[in-house]
Amino acid sequence: MRRSRAAAAALAALVVLVVLVAGCSSAGARGGPGGSGAEPTPTQLAPPRATCGTTRTAANVPVIVEVEKGSAPCAVAMRIQRGYTALVQAGRVPGNGGGAPVRVDGWTCQGEDTPTIVATGEASSCRQGATEIVAVLDLKSLPSRSAAAG
């Protein structure tokens, strides 16, 4: 029980750090809108939820791009998420750390607040009509606590 509380506290601290770093990010941030994972299959659609690939946030945090609701080709989902990341990196999204809604090729994208990130792992979402694309923290790609300490 004590270990799971410690792990939950560590995750919450990591999320807060990610949000703070995102607020300080700029166009010079490491990484970029390009992904680091496998390219999506162009015919993969949702529902059910489709996992499209991985990329990084403006703060260089790995995320998995998913079609949460509705139907969209993965190539579109990845392009929209990368476009949103590029706008945040360029400082073109108003709000604390780029938290305000912004349009990306007809989609409305917005970063999530800290309680939502902690509860769901969803860092941002983009919507067009009834379709929603989400960027979910890829916790498997983050270094483990023991690896980070050593």
Describe the structure in your own words:
Helix content is 34%, strand content 25%. With 150 residues, the chain is of the alpha+beta class. The protein has one domain (2-142). It has a six-stranded antiparallel beta sheet with strand order 1-2-6-5-4-3.
Helix content: 25-40%
Backbone CA Rg: 15 Å
Mean pLDDT across the residues is 73
Query: How many strands in all?
Result: 6
Assign the structural class, choosing from mainly alpha, mainly beta, alpha/beta, alpha+beta, or little secondary structure.
Answer: alpha+beta
Distance between the termini: 24 Å
Spell the H/E element sequence. Answer: HEEHEEHEEH
Number of separate helices:
4
- The proportion of strand residues reads 15-25%
Tell me the overall shape. Answer: globular
* Biggest sheet overview: 6 strands, antiparallel
Could you give the order of strands across the largest sheet? 1-2-6-5-4-3
Q: How many separate domains?
A: 1
The low-confidence parts are 1-47
Considering the chains and any ligands shown, give keywords for the structure.
alpha+beta; single chain; 4 helices; disordered N terminus; 150 residues; six-stranded antiparallel beta sheet
In short:
A 6-stranded antiparallel beta sheet has the order 1-2-6-5-4-3.
Secondary structure blueprint with pairings:
Blueprint: H1 2-24, E1 50-56, E2 62-69, H2 74-89, E3 102-104, E4 107-111, H3 114-120, E5 122-128, E6 131-137, H4 145-149
Antiparallel strand pairs: 1-2, 2-6, 3-4, 4-5, 5-6
